[in-house]
Hints:
heterodimer; A: elongated; B: alpha/beta; 10 strands; 36% helix; globular
Amino acid sequence: MNLGLITDIAKSLLLARLRQTVVAAIGVTFSIAMFIALLGFMNGLNDLLDGLVLNRTAHVRLFNEVKPNPDQPITLVPEFEGQHHFIRSIKSSGLRLDIANSGAILDALHKDSRVKGIAPRVNAPILYNSGTIDITGAVGGIDVVAESDLFFFRDYIRAGNPLDLKNISNSIILGKGVADKLLAEIGDVIQVTTSKGEQLPLKVVGIFQSGLADFDKVQSYASVNTVQKLLGKPNTYLTDIQIKLNELDSAPAVAREYARIFELDAEDIQTANAQFETGSFIRSLISYVVGIVLLIVAGFGIYNILNMMIYEKMDTIAILKATGFSGSDVRKIFLGIALSIGLAGGLLGLTIGFGLSVLIDHVPFVTPALPTITTYPVNYDLKYYLIGISFSLITTYFAGFFPARKASRIDPVVIIRGK
Amino acid sequence: MPVLQTSHINKYFKDPVLVKVLDNVNLTVNRGEFVSVTGKSGCGKSTLLYILSTMDTDYEGDLHIDGELMRGKTEAELAQVRNEKIGFVFQFHYLLNEFTVLKNVMLPGLKLQRFSAQEVEHRAMERLKQLGIDQLALKAANQLSGGEKQRVAIARALINDPLIIMGDEPTGNLDKRNSDVVFDIFRQLSEELKQTLLIVTHDQAFARNTHRIIHMQDGRIESETL
Lengths: 419, 226
Protein backbone atom coordinates (compact mmCIF):
# COMPACT_ATOMS: atom_id res chain seq x y z
CA MET A 1 0.00 0.00 0.00
CA ASN A 2 0.80 3.64 -0.13
CA LEU A 3 2.95 3.69 2.98
CA GLY A 4 4.92 6.81 2.11
CA LEU A 5 1.78 8.89 1.77
CA ILE A 6 0.30 7.49 5.00
CA THR A 7 3.52 8.32 6.86
CA ASP A 8 3.54 11.78 5.33
CA ILE A 9 -0.02 12.50 6.47
CA ALA A 10 0.67 11.05 9.93
CA LYS A 11 3.74 13.26 10.23
CA SER A 12 1.80 16.39 9.27
CA LEU A 13 -0.99 15.66 11.76
CA LEU A 14 1.59 14.98 14.42
CA LEU A 15 3.55 18.19 13.79
CA ALA A 16 0.35 20.23 13.74
CA ARG A 17 -0.18 19.17 17.36
CA LEU A 18 3.44 19.22 18.37
CA ARG A 19 3.02 20.26 21.99
CA GLN A 20 0.52 17.50 22.80
CA THR A 21 2.62 14.91 21.03
CA VAL A 22 5.71 16.00 22.91
CA VAL A 23 3.83 15.66 26.22
CA ALA A 24 2.71 12.16 25.23
CA ALA A 25 6.23 11.23 24.17
CA ILE A 26 7.68 12.56 27.43
CA GLY A 27 5.43 10.13 29.29
CA VAL A 28 6.95 7.26 27.34
CA THR A 29 10.44 8.71 27.67
CA PHE A 30 10.11 8.97 31.42
CA SER A 31 8.86 5.42 31.86
CA ILE A 32 11.46 3.91 29.56
CA ALA A 33 14.24 5.89 31.21
CA MET A 34 13.12 4.70 34.64
CA PHE A 35 12.73 1.17 33.34
CA ILE A 36 16.28 1.11 31.98
CA ALA A 37 17.83 2.77 35.02
CA LEU A 38 15.93 0.51 37.40
CA LEU A 39 16.70 -2.71 35.57
CA GLY A 40 20.34 -1.73 35.04
CA PHE A 41 20.77 -0.93 38.73
CA MET A 42 18.79 -3.92 40.01
CA ASN A 43 20.65 -6.32 37.77
CA GLY A 44 23.95 -4.69 38.64
CA LEU A 45 23.12 -5.42 42.27
CA ASN A 46 22.03 -8.93 41.35
CA ASP A 47 25.32 -9.58 39.58
CA LEU A 48 27.21 -8.19 42.56
CA LEU A 49 25.35 -10.26 45.13
CA ASP A 50 25.42 -13.37 43.00
CA GLY A 51 29.09 -12.76 42.46
CA LEU A 52 29.63 -12.64 46.20
CA VAL A 53 28.78 -16.28 46.49
CA LEU A 54 28.24 -17.77 43.06
CA ASN A 55 31.52 -16.57 41.59
CA ARG A 56 33.37 -18.17 44.42
CA THR A 57 31.40 -21.37 44.33
CA ALA A 58 32.41 -24.25 42.15
CA HIS A 59 29.80 -25.44 39.67
CA VAL A 60 30.53 -28.94 40.83
CA ARG A 61 32.51 -29.79 43.95
CA LEU A 62 33.91 -33.28 44.44
CA PHE A 63 34.71 -34.35 48.00
CA ASN A 64 34.30 -37.11 50.57
CA GLU A 65 31.49 -36.46 53.00
CA VAL A 66 31.80 -37.79 56.51
CA LYS A 67 28.84 -40.18 56.69
CA PRO A 68 27.88 -43.69 57.77
CA ASN A 69 28.80 -46.45 55.39
CA PRO A 70 25.76 -47.20 53.22
CA ASP A 71 26.80 -50.86 53.08
CA GLN A 72 26.01 -52.14 56.58
CA PRO A 73 26.49 -55.88 57.33
CA ILE A 74 22.77 -56.55 57.20
CA THR A 75 22.67 -55.61 53.52
CA LEU A 76 24.93 -58.56 52.82
CA VAL A 77 22.39 -60.99 54.27
CA PRO A 78 20.36 -62.39 51.38
CA GLU A 79 17.25 -63.09 53.48
CA PHE A 80 16.71 -59.42 54.23
CA GLU A 81 17.30 -58.20 50.77
CA GLY A 82 14.64 -55.82 49.49
CA GLN A 83 13.30 -55.21 52.99
CA HIS A 84 13.52 -52.14 55.17
CA HIS A 85 16.35 -52.34 57.68
CA PHE A 86 15.96 -50.85 61.13
CA ILE A 87 19.44 -50.33 62.56
CA ARG A 88 20.25 -48.12 65.50
CA SER A 89 23.43 -46.42 66.69
CA ILE A 90 25.33 -46.45 63.45
CA LYS A 91 28.40 -44.22 63.56
CA SER A 92 30.11 -42.57 60.67
CA SER A 93 32.96 -44.77 59.64
CA GLY A 94 36.56 -43.65 59.71
CA LEU A 95 36.75 -43.25 56.00
CA ARG A 96 39.47 -41.16 54.41
CA LEU A 97 38.87 -37.44 53.99
CA ASP A 98 40.98 -37.14 50.89
CA ILE A 99 40.04 -38.07 47.36
CA ALA A 100 41.37 -41.45 46.40
CA ASN A 101 43.30 -41.70 43.15
CA SER A 102 43.16 -37.90 42.73
CA GLY A 103 45.75 -37.83 39.95
CA ALA A 104 43.69 -40.05 37.65
CA ILE A 105 40.52 -38.08 38.40
CA LEU A 106 42.26 -34.77 37.56
CA ASP A 107 43.47 -36.26 34.27
CA ALA A 108 39.95 -37.44 33.41
CA LEU A 109 38.49 -34.02 34.24
CA HIS A 110 41.09 -32.24 32.11
CA LYS A 111 39.97 -34.33 29.15
CA ASP A 112 36.25 -33.64 29.66
CA SER A 113 35.14 -31.00 27.14
CA ARG A 114 32.31 -29.75 29.38
CA VAL A 115 34.81 -28.63 32.00
CA LYS A 116 36.07 -25.06 31.80
CA GLY A 117 38.63 -25.43 34.53
CA ILE A 118 39.46 -27.21 37.76
CA ALA A 119 40.98 -26.08 41.01
CA PRO A 120 42.17 -28.71 43.50
CA ARG A 121 42.06 -27.94 47.18
CA VAL A 122 43.28 -29.29 50.46
CA ASN A 123 41.17 -28.08 53.34
CA ALA A 124 42.50 -28.51 56.83
CA PRO A 125 41.47 -27.26 60.24
CA ILE A 126 44.25 -25.38 62.05
CA LEU A 127 44.94 -23.26 65.10
CA TYR A 128 46.56 -19.85 64.73
CA ASN A 129 48.97 -19.33 67.65
CA SER A 130 49.16 -15.85 69.08
CA GLY A 131 51.18 -15.80 72.25
CA THR A 132 49.28 -17.94 74.70
CA ILE A 133 46.03 -17.83 72.76
CA ASP A 134 45.08 -20.30 70.05
CA ILE A 135 42.49 -19.22 67.52
CA THR A 136 40.67 -21.96 65.69
CA GLY A 137 40.53 -21.62 61.97
CA ALA A 138 40.83 -23.33 58.66
CA VAL A 139 43.40 -23.19 55.94
CA GLY A 140 42.69 -23.92 52.31
CA GLY A 141 45.51 -25.20 50.21
CA ILE A 142 44.86 -23.78 46.77
CA ASP A 143 46.32 -23.53 43.32
CA VAL A 144 46.40 -19.75 43.32
CA VAL A 145 46.47 -19.35 39.53
CA ALA A 146 43.48 -21.64 38.96
CA GLU A 147 41.57 -20.02 41.85
CA SER A 148 42.16 -16.57 40.39
CA ASP A 149 41.13 -17.60 36.91
CA LEU A 150 38.03 -19.53 37.93
CA PHE A 151 36.87 -18.05 41.20
CA PHE A 152 38.18 -14.46 41.11
CA PHE A 153 40.42 -15.09 44.10
CA ARG A 154 42.61 -12.12 43.13
CA ASP A 155 39.64 -9.71 43.54
CA TYR A 156 39.45 -10.33 47.25
CA ILE A 157 43.09 -9.73 48.07
CA ARG A 158 43.31 -6.44 49.95
CA ALA A 159 47.07 -6.39 50.41
CA GLY A 160 50.00 -8.33 49.02
CA ASN A 161 50.46 -10.29 45.85
CA PRO A 162 48.55 -13.57 45.57
CA LEU A 163 51.23 -15.06 43.34
CA ASP A 164 53.66 -14.94 46.27
CA LEU A 165 51.68 -17.84 47.65
CA LYS A 166 53.09 -19.93 44.85
CA ASN A 167 56.52 -18.33 44.65
CA ILE A 168 57.42 -18.15 48.34
CA SER A 169 57.44 -21.45 50.18
CA ASN A 170 55.68 -21.74 53.54
CA SER A 171 53.60 -18.64 52.91
CA ILE A 172 50.01 -17.83 53.87
CA ILE A 173 47.33 -15.31 52.99
CA LEU A 174 45.23 -14.46 56.04
CA GLY A 175 41.61 -13.48 56.25
CA LYS A 176 41.12 -9.85 57.34
CA GLY A 177 39.54 -10.95 60.62
CA VAL A 178 42.31 -13.43 61.38
CA ALA A 179 44.99 -10.86 60.60
CA ASP A 180 43.33 -8.32 62.89
CA LYS A 181 43.20 -10.81 65.75
CA LEU A 182 46.82 -11.87 65.25
CA LEU A 183 47.94 -8.26 64.67
CA ALA A 184 49.78 -9.69 61.70
CA GLU A 185 50.98 -7.69 58.71
CA ILE A 186 52.55 -8.64 55.44
CA GLY A 187 56.06 -9.99 55.98
CA ASP A 188 55.32 -11.22 59.53
CA VAL A 189 55.77 -14.87 60.38
CA ILE A 190 52.95 -16.56 62.28
CA GLN A 191 52.76 -19.98 63.93
CA VAL A 192 50.02 -22.44 63.09
CA THR A 193 49.24 -25.81 64.67
CA THR A 194 47.51 -28.66 62.89
CA SER A 195 44.89 -30.91 64.45
CA LYS A 196 47.57 -33.58 64.79
CA GLY A 197 49.65 -31.20 66.93
CA GLU A 198 52.35 -30.30 64.43
CA GLN A 199 53.52 -26.71 64.44
CA LEU A 200 54.87 -24.70 61.50
CA PRO A 201 55.91 -21.10 60.98
CA LEU A 202 54.30 -19.45 57.93
CA LYS A 203 55.12 -16.11 56.33
CA VAL A 204 52.20 -13.74 55.72
CA VAL A 205 52.26 -12.63 52.05
CA GLY A 206 48.76 -11.21 51.75
CA ILE A 207 45.46 -10.36 53.39
CA PHE A 208 42.11 -11.12 51.82
CA GLN A 209 38.60 -9.92 52.51
CA SER A 210 35.73 -11.89 51.05
CA GLY A 211 32.85 -9.70 52.18
CA LEU A 212 31.56 -12.39 54.54
CA ALA A 213 33.02 -11.27 57.88
CA ASP A 214 32.56 -14.54 59.74
CA PHE A 215 34.35 -16.36 56.96
CA ASP A 216 37.28 -13.91 57.12
CA LYS A 217 37.68 -14.52 60.85
CA VAL A 218 38.61 -18.17 60.39
CA GLN A 219 39.81 -18.75 56.85
CA SER A 220 43.27 -18.39 55.39
CA TYR A 221 44.91 -19.71 52.27
CA ALA A 222 48.21 -21.35 51.51
CA SER A 223 49.48 -23.29 48.53
CA VAL A 224 48.43 -26.90 48.06
CA ASN A 225 52.00 -28.06 48.79
CA THR A 226 52.27 -26.07 51.99
CA VAL A 227 49.07 -27.54 53.40
CA GLN A 228 50.06 -31.05 52.34
CA LYS A 229 53.36 -30.50 54.14
CA LEU A 230 51.47 -29.11 57.15
CA LEU A 231 49.39 -32.27 57.33
CA GLY A 232 52.32 -34.53 56.61
CA LYS A 233 50.60 -35.97 53.55
CA PRO A 234 51.97 -36.87 50.10
CA ASN A 235 51.47 -34.51 47.15
CA THR A 236 48.53 -36.51 45.81
CA TYR A 237 46.49 -35.64 48.93
CA LEU A 238 43.48 -33.50 47.90
CA THR A 239 40.25 -33.05 49.86
CA ASP A 240 38.24 -31.16 47.25
CA ILE A 241 38.19 -30.74 43.52
CA GLN A 242 36.34 -27.64 42.39
CA ILE A 243 35.09 -27.70 38.85
CA LYS A 244 33.84 -24.83 36.74
CA LEU A 245 31.75 -25.92 33.75
CA ASN A 246 31.14 -24.22 30.43
CA GLU A 247 27.40 -24.57 30.95
CA LEU A 248 26.21 -23.61 34.42
CA ASP A 249 22.84 -25.25 33.85
CA SER A 250 24.33 -28.68 33.25
CA ALA A 251 25.88 -28.75 36.74
CA PRO A 252 23.29 -31.05 38.44
CA ALA A 253 23.55 -33.67 35.69
CA VAL A 254 27.34 -33.51 35.60
CA ALA A 255 27.50 -33.72 39.39
CA ARG A 256 25.40 -36.91 39.38
CA GLU A 257 27.54 -38.40 36.67
CA TYR A 258 30.84 -37.64 38.45
CA ALA A 259 29.48 -38.94 41.76
CA ARG A 260 28.74 -42.24 40.08
CA ILE A 261 31.96 -42.55 38.04
CA PHE A 262 34.42 -41.40 40.71
CA GLU A 263 32.48 -42.82 43.67
CA LEU A 264 32.66 -39.48 45.47
CA ASP A 265 30.22 -36.95 46.82
CA ALA A 266 29.46 -34.27 44.26
CA GLU A 267 27.58 -31.09 44.99
CA ASP A 268 26.30 -28.81 42.26
CA ILE A 269 25.94 -25.05 42.49
CA GLN A 270 22.16 -25.05 42.10
CA THR A 271 21.73 -27.25 45.15
CA ALA A 272 24.30 -25.33 47.16
CA ASN A 273 22.91 -21.87 46.42
CA ALA A 274 19.27 -22.23 45.54
CA GLN A 275 18.29 -19.16 47.57
CA PHE A 276 20.39 -16.81 45.48
CA GLU A 277 18.47 -17.63 42.34
CA THR A 278 15.25 -16.80 44.18
CA GLY A 279 16.56 -13.43 45.35
CA SER A 280 17.72 -12.44 41.88
CA PHE A 281 14.44 -13.53 40.38
CA ILE A 282 12.37 -11.46 42.82
CA ARG A 283 14.50 -8.36 42.26
CA SER A 284 14.17 -8.67 38.46
CA LEU A 285 10.46 -9.27 38.78
CA ILE A 286 9.99 -6.10 40.84
CA SER A 287 11.90 -4.01 38.30
CA TYR A 288 9.88 -5.40 35.41
CA VAL A 289 6.59 -4.80 37.19
CA VAL A 290 7.48 -1.20 38.05
CA GLY A 291 8.65 -0.58 34.49
CA ILE A 292 5.51 -2.03 32.95
CA VAL A 293 3.24 -0.10 35.30
CA LEU A 294 4.99 3.13 34.30
CA LEU A 295 4.53 2.23 30.66
CA ILE A 296 0.86 1.49 31.07
CA VAL A 297 0.37 4.91 32.65
CA ALA A 298 2.19 6.46 29.69
CA GLY A 299 -0.02 4.37 27.41
CA PHE A 300 -3.15 5.94 28.87
CA GLY A 301 -1.63 9.35 28.24
CA ILE A 302 -1.15 8.48 24.58
CA TYR A 303 -4.65 7.06 24.41
CA ASN A 304 -6.12 10.31 25.73
CA ILE A 305 -4.12 12.52 23.44
CA LEU A 306 -4.98 10.45 20.37
CA ASN A 307 -8.65 10.47 21.30
CA MET A 308 -8.54 14.23 21.62
CA MET A 309 -6.70 14.52 18.34
CA ILE A 310 -9.36 12.45 16.61
CA TYR A 311 -12.13 14.71 17.90
CA GLU A 312 -10.21 17.71 16.65
CA LYS A 313 -9.45 16.12 13.31
CA MET A 314 -12.94 14.87 12.49
CA ASP A 315 -13.08 17.16 9.45
CA THR A 316 -9.71 15.99 8.25
CA ILE A 317 -10.71 12.35 8.62
CA ALA A 318 -14.01 12.97 6.82
CA ILE A 319 -12.34 14.73 3.92
CA LEU A 320 -9.67 12.03 3.62
CA LYS A 321 -12.41 9.44 3.41
CA ALA A 322 -14.46 11.50 0.94
CA THR A 323 -11.49 11.86 -1.38
CA GLY A 324 -10.77 8.16 -1.45
CA PHE A 325 -8.85 7.13 1.65
CA SER A 326 -10.31 3.96 3.12
CA GLY A 327 -10.98 3.23 6.79
CA SER A 328 -7.86 1.12 6.98
CA ASP A 329 -5.75 3.99 5.59
CA VAL A 330 -7.11 6.25 8.32
CA ARG A 331 -6.41 3.59 10.92
CA LYS A 332 -2.84 3.26 9.69
CA ILE A 333 -2.38 7.02 9.90
CA PHE A 334 -3.38 7.13 13.56
CA LEU A 335 -1.48 3.96 14.45
CA GLY A 336 1.49 5.55 12.72
CA ILE A 337 1.14 8.58 14.95
CA ALA A 338 0.94 6.40 18.07
CA LEU A 339 3.94 4.31 17.06
CA SER A 340 6.03 7.38 16.21
CA ILE A 341 5.29 8.74 19.67
CA GLY A 342 6.30 5.36 21.08
CA LEU A 343 9.46 5.12 19.01
CA ALA A 344 10.64 8.69 19.55
CA GLY A 345 9.74 8.66 23.24
CA GLY A 346 11.24 5.20 23.64
CA LEU A 347 14.55 6.02 21.95
CA LEU A 348 14.92 9.20 23.98
CA GLY A 349 14.01 7.16 27.06
CA LEU A 350 16.77 4.65 26.27
CA THR A 351 19.27 7.49 25.95
CA ILE A 352 18.19 9.11 29.21
CA GLY A 353 18.03 5.70 30.89
CA PHE A 354 21.60 5.05 29.76
CA GLY A 355 22.60 8.47 31.12
CA LEU A 356 20.98 7.69 34.47
CA SER A 357 22.75 4.34 34.56
CA VAL A 358 26.10 6.05 33.95
CA LEU A 359 25.25 8.52 36.70
CA ILE A 360 24.43 5.73 39.16
CA ASP A 361 27.58 3.96 38.06
CA HIS A 362 29.60 6.97 39.23
CA VAL A 363 28.01 7.36 42.64
CA PRO A 364 30.61 6.26 45.21
CA PHE A 365 29.66 3.12 47.09
CA VAL A 366 32.36 2.00 49.47
CA THR A 367 31.75 -0.85 51.81
CA PRO A 368 34.37 -2.84 53.67
CA ALA A 369 32.43 -5.96 52.84
CA LEU A 370 33.06 -5.51 49.12
CA PRO A 371 36.68 -4.54 48.62
CA THR A 372 36.59 -4.42 44.82
CA ILE A 373 33.52 -2.19 44.57
CA THR A 374 33.96 1.59 44.63
CA THR A 375 30.72 2.76 42.93
CA TYR A 376 27.18 1.42 42.67
CA PRO A 377 27.02 -1.54 40.31
CA VAL A 378 25.10 -1.17 37.04
CA ASN A 379 24.40 -3.73 34.37
CA TYR A 380 24.44 -2.34 30.81
CA ASP A 381 23.12 -5.46 29.11
CA LEU A 382 21.75 -4.66 25.64
CA LYS A 383 18.87 -7.02 26.43
CA TYR A 384 17.20 -4.46 28.72
CA TYR A 385 17.40 -1.80 26.03
CA LEU A 386 15.77 -4.12 23.51
CA ILE A 387 13.05 -5.03 26.00
CA GLY A 388 12.55 -1.33 26.77
CA ILE A 389 12.04 -0.28 23.17
CA SER A 390 9.81 -3.29 22.43
CA PHE A 391 7.67 -2.50 25.46
CA SER A 392 7.32 1.12 24.43
CA LEU A 393 6.24 0.12 20.93
CA ILE A 394 3.81 -2.53 22.17
CA THR A 395 2.23 -0.18 24.73
CA THR A 396 1.84 2.66 22.27
CA TYR A 397 0.44 0.27 19.69
CA PHE A 398 -2.30 -0.79 22.10
CA ALA A 399 -2.84 2.80 23.25
CA GLY A 400 -3.25 3.81 19.61
CA PHE A 401 -5.29 0.83 18.54
CA PHE A 402 -8.69 1.87 19.91
CA PRO A 403 -8.53 5.56 18.96
CA ALA A 404 -7.32 4.53 15.50
CA ARG A 405 -10.18 2.10 15.13
CA LYS A 406 -12.60 4.78 16.18
CA ALA A 407 -11.13 7.13 13.58
CA SER A 408 -11.40 4.49 10.87
CA ARG A 409 -15.11 4.07 11.62
CA ILE A 410 -16.01 7.75 11.44
CA ASP A 411 -18.81 8.23 8.94
CA PRO A 412 -17.83 11.12 6.67
CA VAL A 413 -21.45 11.86 5.79
CA VAL A 414 -22.29 12.62 9.41
CA ILE A 415 -19.37 15.04 9.71
CA ILE A 416 -19.86 16.78 6.37
CA ARG A 417 -23.63 17.14 6.73
CA GLY A 418 -23.36 18.06 10.37
CA LYS A 419 -21.66 21.38 9.60
CA MET B 1 -23.06 4.37 -21.12
CA PRO B 2 -24.39 6.79 -18.50
CA VAL B 3 -21.90 8.04 -15.96
CA LEU B 4 -24.32 7.47 -13.15
CA GLN B 5 -27.61 5.66 -12.96
CA THR B 6 -29.95 4.89 -10.10
CA SER B 7 -32.99 2.71 -10.04
CA HIS B 8 -35.68 2.79 -7.37
CA ILE B 9 -33.61 4.29 -4.60
CA ASN B 10 -35.40 4.48 -1.26
CA LYS B 11 -33.87 5.76 1.93
CA TYR B 12 -35.24 5.87 5.45
CA PHE B 13 -34.13 7.72 8.54
CA LYS B 14 -34.87 5.55 11.54
CA ASP B 15 -34.46 8.08 14.29
CA PRO B 16 -36.70 8.63 16.22
CA VAL B 17 -39.47 7.26 13.94
CA LEU B 18 -39.21 5.72 10.51
CA VAL B 19 -39.22 8.54 7.97
CA LYS B 20 -38.90 7.95 4.27
CA VAL B 21 -36.49 10.59 2.97
CA LEU B 22 -36.03 9.28 -0.55
CA ASP B 23 -38.88 7.72 -2.45
CA ASN B 24 -38.20 5.74 -5.59
CA VAL B 25 -35.54 7.98 -7.10
CA ASN B 26 -34.63 7.11 -10.68
CA LEU B 27 -31.92 9.25 -12.12
CA THR B 28 -29.50 9.05 -15.00
CA VAL B 29 -26.59 11.38 -15.57
CA ASN B 30 -24.91 11.16 -18.96
CA ARG B 31 -21.35 12.04 -19.91
CA GLY B 32 -20.76 15.77 -20.30
CA GLU B 33 -23.98 16.83 -18.61
CA PHE B 34 -24.09 19.75 -16.18
CA VAL B 35 -26.91 18.83 -13.82
CA SER B 36 -28.21 20.74 -10.83
CA VAL B 37 -30.44 19.33 -8.11
CA THR B 38 -32.64 21.85 -6.33
CA GLY B 39 -35.34 21.76 -3.76
CA LYS B 40 -36.26 23.09 -0.37
CA SER B 41 -34.32 22.30 2.76
CA GLY B 42 -35.10 18.77 3.87
CA CYS B 43 -36.34 17.58 0.47
CA GLY B 44 -33.62 14.93 0.43
CA LYS B 45 -31.32 16.41 -2.18
CA SER B 46 -28.18 16.23 -0.04
CA THR B 47 -29.13 12.75 1.16
CA LEU B 48 -29.39 11.68 -2.46
CA LEU B 49 -25.99 13.21 -3.25
CA TYR B 50 -24.29 11.29 -0.44
CA ILE B 51 -25.82 8.05 -1.68
CA LEU B 52 -24.63 8.84 -5.22
CA SER B 53 -21.18 9.63 -3.83
CA THR B 54 -20.97 6.05 -2.35
CA MET B 55 -20.29 7.47 1.12
CA ASP B 56 -23.76 6.53 2.35
CA THR B 57 -24.42 2.84 1.82
CA ASP B 58 -27.60 2.48 3.84
CA TYR B 59 -30.31 2.60 1.13
CA GLU B 60 -32.57 0.41 -1.00
CA GLY B 61 -32.29 0.19 -4.75
CA ASP B 62 -29.36 0.08 -7.13
CA LEU B 63 -26.65 2.57 -7.95
CA HIS B 64 -24.43 2.15 -11.00
CA ILE B 65 -21.39 4.34 -11.51
CA ASP B 66 -19.68 3.98 -14.89
CA GLY B 67 -21.81 0.87 -15.41
CA GLU B 68 -20.61 -0.77 -12.23
CA LEU B 69 -23.03 -1.79 -9.49
CA MET B 70 -22.02 -0.26 -6.17
CA ARG B 71 -23.97 -2.67 -3.98
CA GLY B 72 -21.85 -5.34 -2.33
CA LYS B 73 -18.58 -3.47 -2.64
CA THR B 74 -16.38 -3.29 0.44
CA GLU B 75 -15.62 -0.04 2.19
CA ALA B 76 -12.11 -0.03 0.71
CA GLU B 77 -13.42 -0.67 -2.82
CA LEU B 78 -15.90 2.20 -2.49
CA ALA B 79 -13.08 4.45 -1.28
CA GLN B 80 -11.18 3.45 -4.41
CA VAL B 81 -14.19 4.38 -6.58
CA ARG B 82 -14.44 7.80 -4.89
CA ASN B 83 -10.75 8.34 -5.29
CA GLU B 84 -10.68 7.46 -8.97
CA LYS B 85 -14.02 8.52 -10.37
CA ILE B 86 -15.58 11.20 -8.19
CA GLY B 87 -14.40 14.71 -7.37
CA PHE B 88 -16.04 16.50 -4.45
CA VAL B 89 -16.72 20.13 -3.73
CA PHE B 90 -18.41 20.82 -0.40
CA GLN B 91 -20.13 23.85 1.01
CA PHE B 92 -17.47 24.36 3.66
CA HIS B 93 -14.29 23.99 1.56
CA TYR B 94 -12.84 21.28 3.82
CA LEU B 95 -9.21 21.77 3.06
CA LEU B 96 -6.70 20.10 5.37
CA ASN B 97 -5.14 22.92 7.37
CA GLU B 98 -2.04 20.88 8.13
CA PHE B 99 -0.97 21.00 4.50
CA THR B 100 -0.12 23.59 1.87
CA VAL B 101 -2.55 24.36 -0.92
CA LEU B 102 -0.47 22.34 -3.37
CA LYS B 103 -0.35 19.31 -1.05
CA ASN B 104 -4.11 19.52 -0.52
CA VAL B 105 -4.64 19.29 -4.25
CA MET B 106 -2.08 16.52 -4.60
CA LEU B 107 -3.39 14.19 -1.84
CA PRO B 108 -6.07 12.30 -3.85
CA GLY B 109 -3.57 11.96 -6.70
CA LEU B 110 -0.90 10.58 -4.42
CA LYS B 111 -3.45 8.16 -3.03
CA LEU B 112 -4.45 6.95 -6.51
CA GLN B 113 -0.83 6.35 -7.55
CA ARG B 114 -1.63 6.52 -11.22
CA PHE B 115 1.21 8.96 -11.63
CA SER B 116 4.52 9.45 -9.85
CA ALA B 117 4.73 12.08 -7.10
CA GLN B 118 6.48 14.55 -9.47
CA GLU B 119 3.82 14.11 -12.10
CA VAL B 120 1.05 14.53 -9.54
CA GLU B 121 2.70 17.75 -8.39
CA HIS B 122 2.98 18.95 -11.98
CA ARG B 123 -0.68 18.13 -12.64
CA ALA B 124 -1.72 19.86 -9.42
CA MET B 125 0.12 23.01 -10.50
CA GLU B 126 -1.64 22.82 -13.88
CA ARG B 127 -5.03 22.64 -12.18
CA LEU B 128 -4.17 25.57 -9.92
CA LYS B 129 -3.03 27.61 -12.95
CA GLN B 130 -6.19 26.74 -14.80
CA LEU B 131 -8.20 28.16 -11.90
CA GLY B 132 -5.92 31.19 -11.58
CA ILE B 133 -4.65 30.47 -8.09
CA ASP B 134 -1.19 29.03 -8.80
CA GLN B 135 0.38 31.89 -6.84
CA LEU B 136 -1.22 30.44 -3.70
CA ALA B 137 0.32 27.00 -4.15
CA LEU B 138 2.75 27.16 -1.26
CA LYS B 139 0.48 28.95 1.20
CA ALA B 140 -1.00 27.13 4.17
CA ALA B 141 -4.64 26.19 3.55
CA ASN B 142 -5.94 28.26 6.46
CA GLN B 143 -4.44 31.50 5.12
CA LEU B 144 -6.86 31.57 2.17
CA SER B 145 -10.11 33.45 1.73
CA GLY B 146 -13.39 31.57 1.30
CA GLY B 147 -13.50 31.98 -2.47
CA GLU B 148 -9.88 30.92 -2.80
CA LYS B 149 -10.48 27.87 -0.66
CA GLN B 150 -13.39 26.81 -2.82
CA ARG B 151 -11.25 27.11 -5.93
CA VAL B 152 -8.57 24.98 -4.30
CA ALA B 153 -11.25 22.42 -3.48
CA ILE B 154 -12.27 22.38 -7.14
CA ALA B 155 -8.65 21.89 -8.18
CA ARG B 156 -8.46 18.98 -5.73
CA ALA B 157 -11.65 17.50 -7.19
CA LEU B 158 -10.06 17.65 -10.64
CA ILE B 159 -6.70 16.11 -9.84
CA ASN B 160 -7.59 12.53 -10.83
CA ASP B 161 -9.59 13.53 -13.97
CA PRO B 162 -12.79 12.26 -12.36
CA LEU B 163 -15.71 10.85 -14.25
CA ILE B 164 -18.02 13.21 -12.40
CA ILE B 165 -17.71 16.18 -10.08
CA MET B 166 -20.26 16.33 -7.29
CA GLY B 167 -20.96 19.51 -5.40
CA ASP B 168 -22.97 19.98 -2.22
CA GLU B 169 -23.99 23.66 -2.16
CA PRO B 170 -20.55 24.70 -3.42
CA THR B 171 -21.57 28.36 -3.53
CA GLY B 172 -23.72 28.23 -0.41
CA ASN B 173 -21.10 29.85 1.76
CA LEU B 174 -19.80 32.41 -0.74
CA ASP B 175 -20.70 35.99 -1.58
CA LYS B 176 -22.16 36.90 -4.96
CA ARG B 177 -18.84 37.68 -6.61
CA ASN B 178 -17.17 34.46 -5.50
CA SER B 179 -20.29 32.46 -6.36
CA ASP B 180 -20.05 33.80 -9.89
CA VAL B 181 -16.38 32.89 -10.07
CA VAL B 182 -17.12 29.34 -8.94
CA PHE B 183 -20.05 29.01 -11.32
CA ASP B 184 -17.91 30.27 -14.20
CA ILE B 185 -15.34 27.64 -13.40
CA PHE B 186 -17.98 24.91 -13.46
CA ARG B 187 -19.39 26.17 -16.71
CA GLN B 188 -15.95 26.37 -18.24
CA LEU B 189 -15.20 22.80 -17.14
CA SER B 190 -18.47 21.67 -18.63
CA GLU B 191 -18.11 23.49 -21.94
CA GLU B 192 -14.39 23.21 -22.59
CA LEU B 193 -13.54 19.86 -21.06
CA LYS B 194 -16.96 18.20 -21.32
CA GLN B 195 -16.68 17.51 -17.60
CA THR B 196 -19.75 15.86 -16.09
CA LEU B 197 -21.08 17.80 -13.10
CA LEU B 198 -23.81 17.10 -10.56
CA ILE B 199 -24.38 20.04 -8.24
CA VAL B 200 -26.85 20.21 -5.37
CA THR B 201 -27.89 23.82 -4.78
CA HIS B 202 -30.75 25.93 -3.56
CA ASP B 203 -29.42 28.92 -5.49
CA GLN B 204 -32.03 29.29 -8.26
CA ALA B 205 -29.81 31.65 -10.28
CA PHE B 206 -27.07 29.03 -10.25
CA ALA B 207 -29.46 26.24 -11.21
CA ARG B 208 -31.02 28.18 -14.10
CA ASN B 209 -27.67 28.33 -15.87
CA THR B 210 -27.06 24.58 -15.86
CA HIS B 211 -28.04 22.17 -18.64
CA ARG B 212 -30.61 20.34 -16.63
CA ILE B 213 -32.40 21.05 -13.37
CA ILE B 214 -33.76 18.25 -11.22
CA HIS B 215 -36.29 19.59 -8.79
CA MET B 216 -36.96 17.52 -5.70
CA GLN B 217 -39.77 17.62 -3.21
CA ASP B 218 -40.44 15.34 -0.23
CA GLY B 219 -37.90 12.77 -1.34
CA ARG B 220 -39.20 12.49 -4.90
CA ILE B 221 -38.02 13.89 -8.18
CA GLU B 222 -40.84 16.23 -8.99
CA SER B 223 -39.77 17.74 -12.26
CA GLU B 224 -36.88 18.02 -14.66
CA THR B 225 -36.24 21.05 -16.79
CA LEU B 226 -33.73 21.21 -19.57
